[in-house]
Specification:
heterodimer; A: 382 residues; alpha/beta; Rossmann fold; 2 domains; 7-stranded mixed sheet; 5-stranded mixed sheet; 13 helices; globular; B: 275 residues; 8-stranded mixed sheet; 37% helix
Chain lengths: 382, 275
């Protein structure tokens, strides 16, 4: 079979990836700059026997996605800032009830209606703590159109594997930019499906940790095993409970299923960090400008490196720890916001490095020149 | 309760949380009896609820059950029905859950005519939070948040549902139980969005504050106030004041949403494969 080469927009690549991952349900509500994902899903899903529905609002879309996933279909929704805020209630429901689902957030300038057509990375903390209460979540962020494709598949895989909502954190630029993309052969794509119930289990307890790995087997509604799902704290049978031990055990398991598996979940890329004195930590579209700047600065002979976070949450503390084994003195956190990730990087660095922010929040991308200027400013200061 | 009906309950989850005299158990029992009378397959039934006293009912019922977020039951139910149209999807909701926080989902589910049966436990009050007024609290009634009397006008849920596009609409009460069971049976057999507004009692929070007397007196009051839809059709608006109109308001055949979507799938698959 010949390689599939396409000129794709990020939002198009997202739907292609979702379909390759097995998405068969999409519920959404129109919002810039994510709308193409809904439009393309509406066109393509019925072709593969899947279902698309435009719901009455963002809350309903998130609810429908969870319902469809419980009934056995891999489900996704896409939105942007204001819509992402509205989805938080039901994202929390999916976290607690452990229903796999993928939520794409194509970031635009905020707060509120903000800058609908312009890029930002201001939802970093909202993806982690947007819904109330302690909860597990996985957030991954692509920097190219091809990576949007790959990461959408990965978002489904992580969500199915860990029975947790996975947020694909894009931004307006990566969503609307077009690139030449070589798509992988379908047969070469790894697909992970939710853990099924072993036939030896006769009296199914939907929230029992059968395998001792904190990850529960899941029956789909309609498969013949009736059970209860509630957004209340629940015991292993799925019934509401306010017992202190039950509560603690449940929350610990929810967190453990993510934090016991950070080696599997967390991905990052390091470029020129071995001998670097300054490393720029970044993610998403901003990484494109940083990569260009790093290459130009290296040509000038400056010892600059790049740490690109592909997984945003859980945070890649190990990547920061690894840098303590190198000559790195300075970290510059480049992001299109007021410094949301920088605070976490600082905490992770535990004083081992000087941490600086390169922040832009006017609806424009950070340019390579701005990165270069910041690096030189830090070099002079140090 | 008849022995044959025990299988529909999660008996180990009883006793329930409802107050003595509450009507919710009567409605839950009516739903179970309607399901049993129709011989519906237990594992193919999915019962979805929102938040509130009524929304605790599915926890006691032995089906695929989903207790969702406040007002959102119909949104979740829509996803379930779209994903697997072989499932018989029933939404159990309260008056506040359905008509206030869930009002948008309610009118849009009705508009789509998706095959979901919605049963509203309408006791005119927010019971779980101990007695605040809902969009179904009658004007002039008292609630913890209407200490001087309620000035809000209440919805007629049946009219709202019907004008939004529901294709089977009826009202029953917790007093007229055999009729209620029949109405639920008809709603379950109906192909499309069906709504049953069930006039219910909350002796603890609505009854006490409005000095309505014991649950028995509240039930008798429902009997006194109820008239049939047929009788109501002959009465003037003045004569209808203070009456509960019970019975069927509409039963229409109209294209059902998931069936319409299946046609979309056929169209998409029969169209230009390269498109």
């Amino acid at each position: 079979m010949s390689k599939k080469i396409m000129l794709l927009q990020g939002n198009e690549a997202c739907v292609e990836g979702a379909l390759a991952a097995g998405m068969r349900f999409y519920a959404g509500y129109p919002i810039t700059p994510s709308t193409e994902i809904a439009e393309i899903s509406a066109e393509k899903l019925p072709k593969v026997g899947g279902k698309f529905i435009q719901m009455e609002d963002e809350l309903a879309s998130m609810g429908a996605v969870i319902g469809a996933s419980l009934a056995g279909l891999k489900s996704m929704t896409a939105t942007s800032g204001p819509g992402f805020s509205l989805k938080q209630e039901n994202i929390g429901f999916a976290c607690l009830t452990e229903v796999p689902c993928v939520v794409v957030n194509v970031q635009r300038g905020g707060p509120s209606t903000g800058l609908p057509t312009l890029p930002a990375q201001g939802d970093v903390m909202q993806t982690r703590w947007g819904t109330h209460g302690d909860h597990p979540i996985i957030v991954i962020s692509p920097f190219s159109v091809r990576e949007v494709y790959d990461m959408t598949i990965r978002a489904f895989n992580l969500s199915e594997k860990y029975r947790v909502p996975c947020i694909l954190l894009m931004d307006e630029v990566v969503a609307h930019m077009r690139e030449r993309v070589e798509l992988p052969e379908k047969s070469s794509i790894d697909i992970i499906n939710r853990k099924k119930i072993k036939p030896t289990i006769l009296d199914y307890k939907p929230y029992m940790d059968y395998d001792g790995d904190c990850i529960l087997p899941m029956a789909n509604f309609g498969e013949g095993i009736p059970y209860h799902v509630t957004g209340l704290i629940h015991d292993i049978s799925g019934s509401p409970s306010s017992d202190q031990k039950v509560t603690k055990t449940l929350l610990n398991r929810l967190m453990s299923k993510i934090y016991n598996n950070v080696a599997d979940i967390i991905e990052y890329e390091k470029i020129y960090t071995e001998d670097a004195e300054t490393v720029i930590v970044t993610f998403g579209t901003t990484a494109r400008s940083v990569l260009r700047a790093v290459c130009l600065l290296r040509q000038e002979g400056l010892k600059i490196g790049l740490l690109r976070l592909k997984t945003i949450w859980p945070f890649a503390h190990m990547a920061i720890k690894e840098l303590t084994q190198t000559p790195v003195k300075n970290l510059i956190v480049a992001e299109m916001n007021y410094g949301q990730l920088m605070e976490t990087v600082k905490a992770s660095a535990e004083g081992a490095f000087s941490v600086y922010g390169l922040n832009k929040y006017n609806g424009e991308l950070i340019t390579p020149q701005e990165v270069i200027d910041k690096v030189k400013e830090v070099a002079e200061r140090a | 309760m008849r022995k044959e009906l025990q299988k529909y309950f999660r008996n180990d989850k009883l006793p329930h949380i409802w107050c003595p005299g509450c009507g919710h158990g009567i409605i839950t029992g009516a739903v179970i009896r309607a399901i049993d009378n129709l011989n519906l397959e237990q594992s193919k039934i999915c019962i979805v609820s929102g938040i509130g006293c009524s929304s605790r009912a599915p926890g006691y019922m032995n089906f695929n059950t989903l207790h969702t977020t406040h007002g959102r039951a119909l949104a979740f139910a829509t996803g379930i029905k779209m994903a697997n149209h072989d499932l018989k999807v029933i939404v159990l909701t309260g008056d506040g859950d359905c008509s206030a926080i869930g009002g948008n989902h309610f009118i849009h589910a009705a508009r789509r005519n998706i095959d979901i049966t919605t049963i509203v436990f309408n006791n005119s009050i927010y019971g779980m939070t101990s007695g605040q007024y809902s969009p179904m609290t009658p004007k002039g009634a008292f609630a913890t948040t209407a200490p001087y009397g309620n000035i809000d006008r209440n919805f007629d849920l049946c009219k709202l549902g019907q004008s939004a596009g529901a294709t089977y609409v009826a009202r029953g009460t917790v007093y007229h139980v055999p009729q209620l069971i029949k109405l639920i049976e008809k709603a379950l057999k109906h192909k499309g969005f069906s709504l049953i507004d069930v006039v219910d009692i909350c002796p603890t929070y609505f009854g006490r504050r409005n000095k309505m007397g014991s649950p028995v007196i509240m039930m008798e009051k429902i009997r006194e106030m109820s008239i049939t839809a047929k009788t109501a059709a002959k009465l003037s608006p003045e004569e209808l004041s203070g009456k509960i109109v019970i019975g069927e308001f509409c039963e229409e055949k109209a294209p059902e949403y998931t069936k319409e979507y299946n046609k979309i799938i056929k169209k998409a698959q029969g169209g230009n494969q390269n498109g």
